[in-house]
Amino acid sequence: MTEIHIGSTLQYDVRQRTVFLFQITAGLTSRQRVVNEQLNFDPFVEVEDCQVGVEGNRVHRVIVEPCQFSVNYQATVDLKQEIDPQTQIGESKVAEMPAEVLTYMNPSRYCESDLLGRFAFEEFGQLERGFSRVQAICDWVYDHLDYTPGSTNATTTAADVLLQRTGVCRDYAHLAIALCRGVGIPARYLSGYAVDLQPPDYHGFMEAFLDGEWYMFDPTRLASTVGLVRIGVGRDAADVAFSTLTGSALLMQKNVWANFAESKPNLDEPSAVSTA
Amino acid sequence: MTEIHIGSTLQYDVRQRTVFLFQITAGLTSRQRVVNEQLNFDPFVEVEDCQVGVEGNRVHRVIVEPCQFSVNYQATVDLKQEIDPQTQIGESKVAEMPAEVLTYMNPSRYCESDLLGRFAFEEFGQLERGFSRVQAICDWVYDHLDYTPGSTNATTTAADVLLQRTGVCRDYAHLAIALCRGVGIPARYLSGYAVDLQPPDYHGFMEAFLDGEWYMFDPTRLASTVGLVRIGVGRDAADVAFSTLTGSALLMQKNVWANFAESKPNLDEPSAVSTA
Amino acid sequence: MTEIHIGSTLQYDVRQRTVFLFQITAGLTSRQRVVNEQLNFDPFVEVEDCQVGVEGNRVHRVIVEPCQFSVNYQATVDLKQEIDPQTQIGESKVAEMPAEVLTYMNPSRYCESDLLGRFAFEEFGQLERGFSRVQAICDWVYDHLDYTPGSTNATTTAADVLLQRTGVCRDYAHLAIALCRGVGIPARYLSGYAVDLQPPDYHGFMEAFLDGEWYMFDPTRLASTVGLVRIGVGRDAADVAFSTLTGSALLMQKNVWANFAESKPNLDEPSAVSTA
Amino acid sequence: MTEIHIGSTLQYDVRQRTVFLFQITAGLTSRQRVVNEQLNFDPFVEVEDCQVGVEGNRVHRVIVEPCQFSVNYQATVDLKQEIDPQTQIGESKVAEMPAEVLTYMNPSRYCESDLLGRFAFEEFGQLERGFSRVQAICDWVYDHLDYTPGSTNATTTAADVLLQRTGVCRDYAHLAIALCRGVGIPARYLSGYAVDLQPPDYHGFMEAFLDGEWYMFDPTRLASTVGLVRIGVGRDAADVAFSTLTGSALLMQKNVWANFAESKPNLDEPSAVSTA
């Protein structure tokens, strides 16, 4: 088990009555256990805790009148680290995939696997199937993109990124997801906290479905998968925005942090971390 | 209650072992009751009945060895027709929407509501909120597009259609969905059977979430909503393809039919049909 | 005649041997006469004066070794103001257009008139033909876009802008050009200097071919057409970049100015200025 | 010298007064000499011979009243075959390129070299400069695309093709052009007649500017460059449509042919053919 402290603070200048949907709290999964957590709003507002989507993403809905508004979240999370002998992990056949996994084969807003299918097949279709193929896709993404803040925006898609060859974590994940789906591997997007991320921010990474389980990958290599705490999961970034607001409010400040409670486990990278 | 007979036959030339995912059977919802149904495969194959996605779409998975393969589906469905006084139906506020509805506000592969948001807001932002606004969106789509088979393909999106102004049922629905989401109304895609559809085929239409319920619309005006039988529901057409196949098979023939068991109810159009 | 003083200074940090193509000097046309001009490079370099494209855009090519490099241009230009009775100006028929105008009917990189043709026709196809129709297109662009620096980049096209509804001068011009071509009016892009432009910069605007002549329009309304001095002309912004460089150099500073030599002529707007 | 017979017949059902711009006659260049030619219209109409664009493309403009209208073109063309030792041919430096070549470095409607620049640079940036690099680009295009009639349409661009990996001659040429421009080699689109093309049709191919001259390439490998007769040249296919019509007319039939007057010269492929 690895214990990780995470947290974030968001400050808004709320100009008129605004409905916020926050997705900033640690997900509750069999892999990660929330030891303790606090979610505070200042000034105090009633909060509604929603479970959204098939995976039950935790979304907190609040209605805020005009004010200086801040949200503070802090938690300690225990991560189960299953170190798998990655070379042994194969792919699941479509004939055997659980029904709930099938939608993660479909193209989505930012991961147009239908457009990228032939490219994916040409580039990765002949590789040995399994964990190593997803790793090869992530390596390709890492090798061919330049991590360039500001080079993309909220409407940039995997196809855009494949051509322009620059992006940030969200774009890396979208491209890796689209390429996985393109060769028939279910893949999904995760938002989360990442230990040692520089500069500190919420992070975006991905999971591929292999041999009956979801495995995490971070194509940016900005963070070790052993320090990744999942917030939400979705088809792409559209499903896990840290905040969605209806009304009028300006984000004034954002602080995000994550660190190991104790010394980091000594593990060789890349390790395979399966989740559920 | 309206009783409708529906059915379809698909014939494939299966060239090598192929996994099929079929989505051709009537959905099981509170609005529509399947009185009887038969799903037959020739030659006989084991079939696995999957529930996919949050809405539990019925997907039938079969594995087929090389052969001439045919699928036949027939059913009688009872539709509950709730004729609502449509002018009374308002919109739901984000602050009050059920959690499971929120994902239908997100952009999806073929409904880029993020790109079309400003257009939607300019064109429909000032209209009175409610059923009539969705009707206005569907009317706009009907008025501005030419129904032109062959003018679009599997990768055509709502943004493409908004520019090129042609499409088929799928494109009409995608554009209407994107515009609804663009003004803050949850909307989703439905595949189904449509009584009197010419030429006969599976149909694509949409639902908007208003005042706590989903309401059906067909922006093509090719079919009356009282004769629409839902197969599956999703964010867009990517989620409800009538068949998805992994392997090698050629669709040789497709027959689709739907008709009222008795004389069609005499209803003025457009009527509001709420579903769940 | 209107006399205008224009000029610009560009400073570069040249990191390695770089070939520059500058397009910053006033065009030589029957409408505008360069009374005097100076183009200086510091340090001194050999300069080659090229005439590029059908319209003979003035491009200055220099080869620069690593250094702090600056370019200074100053000129006095006399503009002939032909005040036309704009309501009398009709459109040219394809049957009568001069051959050299025909290419300005074709779609170009940033003006996809092929994609926007139906939209243009629906919106502007029924208007009376002539100057007033181009004015209606420019008014529509002005009314439906928000001038938002930073909302677009070097790859943004007219179709993008039509959807997202924001942009800068270049985007306004591209959209107006694409819509003109979409209804069969030849249109082209101009870069230039603009008196009173705030903030000062090179400007982008357009010309439409009407009744045998080119007429200038500025859909941004940021500058009066009587104060517009043309640098170059092309199918779109791709043809008239103020600098194109091969090598490695960083633009450190850019100053652009333009003002009337004497008091501005008292003319009612919008005036029709024909050029050749 | 190689003598080639070329010709084409177009038949239209003209529904209302229509202006046609035809681009179907052999270009007049230093490489190809038109020995004799006939351009006939039935019924007879006045024809205007226009020179369009910097390269003086031959465009024939006619105005046709409602009728069954046919165009017939026949010519004998002498091609000068300059067999160059291709490995010796280098690239031109930007510093030395003739001014009229510079616009062929710009992105165009169907050749978005700005979007594909990084891809081009990654894939071909390190290759030895010269004829062999253009050949490598054409080989890459040939190897990675499937020639699939119907897979693209009039709005398909090089970026689309790079992702979807299918197309026809026009798409092959567009992608090769965009990739050449992406690495700094001027490139342009040619329409023409091609000996032995199957099925017979007008053909689309390309030229790259190397070492002071334009060299022809056909990335489809459907025709030998020694049997290519140029009609027109442009930035991309938008400039050289075989017919552009304003009015209402339906193309009923199209016949195109090209064959060697005598036995084909015995040349090893790929040969370098320079043109001007």
TrEMBL record, chains A, B, C, D:
Which domain of life, per UniProt? Bacteria
Report the residue ranges that make up the Transglutaminase-like domain in this protein.
161-221
Which InterPro entries does the entry link to?
Bact_transglu_N_2 (IPR048930), Papain-like_cys_pep_sf (IPR038765), Transglutaminase-like (IPR002931)
What the entry lists under Pfam families is as follows:
Bact_transglu_N_2, Transglut_core
User: Which PANTHER family does the entry link to?
Assistant: BLL5557 PROTEIN, BLR5614 PROTEIN-RELATED
Query: Can you say what this protein is called?
Result: Transglutaminase family protein
- Recorded source organism is Aporhodopirellula aestuarii
